[in-house]
Amino acid sequence: MGLYDISVKDMKNAEVSMKTFEGKVLLVVNTATGCGFTPQYDGLEKLYATYKDKGFVVLDFPCNQFAGQAPDNIEKIDSFCTLKYHTTFPRFAKIDVNGEKESPLYTFLKKEKSGLLGERIHWNFTKFLINRQGEVVKRYASAVKPEDIAHDIEKLIA
Questions:
Q1: Is 8 exposed, middle or buried (0-12, 13-18, 19+ CB in 10 A)?
Q2: Catalytic site residue 63?
Q3: CATH architecture group of domain 3-157
Q4: 78-112, pLDDT tens digit by residue?
Q5: Which residue in 11, 25, 35, 58 is the catalytic one?
């Protein structure tokens, strides 16, 4: 199974095929509004604004699996991100990124690129960079700032 065979749920719980994003460079991020890394939303929005016209998209997947740092419903999460960080990139329904209820998207991403400590996602704001062919090119730890990913994005959109 490849990336474009997977479906995810949007904020209204409707199925969205990842094929919708075929031909785009993607940055998939599991997020939380109450995390020490939450200010990375600023950097994610700057990346999106800078490169969206060149076929780049940030995909935001809120996740409450790490210290309960995304406890709100998706409407509150979306409102928070939109008002505080002025985000405009696509946001999806809350998901699990580990465990028996994990999203098939994250099962795929983790199998394609393990982190330093193995496949498991260890915290919020883990990022996966995907090329236009749907291949996972790189995985970034939570502490990697969005602006530090810009060079890798530029190589893929060239």
A1: buried
A2: no
A3: 3-Layer(aba) Sandwich (3.40)
A4: 999 999 999 999 999 999 999 999 999 999 999 99
A5: 35
